[in-house]
Design a protein that fits this description.
43% helix, globular, binds S-adenosylmethionine, seven-stranded mixed beta sheet, alpha/beta, 213 residues
């Protein structure tokens, strides 16, 4: 992945965000909420600006940071976003209300693997952003890619998982080792998928961009 000096340089070049976004970034830092890394989200937002999606499905709202950044980057887009954690859901609801962009967002409370009916009714989608439990990426992809329009894209974050998927060092914790293995298997599956062209950008925590063939 990118080296630390390069990341610092790139982050310094990124313009300040609005006060609300900076407040959310600070809240996330202080409360260890894993929002998307700054360079990673800038790359994703640029795809949103180019793609101009009408409808976006986001799996993994957390406190609503990426949903609001996408809403701001593409004011004509509507975002359907899913979060299972009660505290983060409430925090997101609150930030959406304060943002003045709440009318662009539908927030669904619950496990993404149990919300297919509601997601289907609200679809189809021009973009799907997968940023939830890393061990479930293949399931999310398989469940929701059927609701993607033919010209749509799927963006998956954390596919390089802090470099652990390619570093040779032995991973002590079994839980992390299993997770790394699952992400690695997902990457292999995605890159050889007959129905999608995929590229992995080594930016942020690793961002995969997939488009239907
Ligand atoms: N996209 C957010 C951002 O960049 O601002 C960050 C999302 S954070 C990495 C992942 C979130 O997904 C967590 O808040 C977690 O509670 C939620 N999550 C994980 N698995 C989920 C699932 N199966 N269904 C719904 N939410 C899930």
């Amino acid at each position: 992945m990118l080296n630390d000096e390069l990341i610092t340089y790139m982050q310094k070049l990124i313009p300040d965000r609005t006060n609300l976004f900076m407040e959310m970034e600070e809240y996330a830092r202080e409360n260890r909420v894993p929002i998307m890394e700054l360079e990673g989200i800038e790359a994703m937002l640029q795809i949103v600006r180019i793609q101009q999606p009408t409808k976006i499905l986001e799996i993994g709202t957390a406190i609503g940071y990426s949903a609001l950044r996408m809403a701001e980057a593409c004011p004509s887009a509507h975002i359907v976003t899913l979060e299972r954690d009660q505290e983060r859901y409430e925090k997101a609801e609150n930030y959406f209300a304060r943002s003045g962009m709440a009318n662009q967002i539908t927030l669904i409370k619950g496990d993404a693997l149990e919300q297919e009916d509601e997601v289907r009714i609200l679809g189809d989608y021009d973009m799907i952003f997968i940023d939830a439990a890393k061990g479930q990426y293949k399931k999310f992809f398989e469940m929701y890619s059927q609701y993607l329009n033919d010209t749509g894209v799927i963006i998956t974050d954390n596919v390089l998982f802090k470099g652990l998927v390619y570093e040779k060092a032995e991973i002590e914790k079994k839980r992390i080792r299993n997770l790394v293995q699952k992400i690695d298997q997902f990457n292999e599956w995605l890159m050889t998928n007959d129905r999608y062209h995929t590229v992995i950008l080594p930016i942020g925590d690793g961002v995969a961009i997939s488009r239907k063939k």
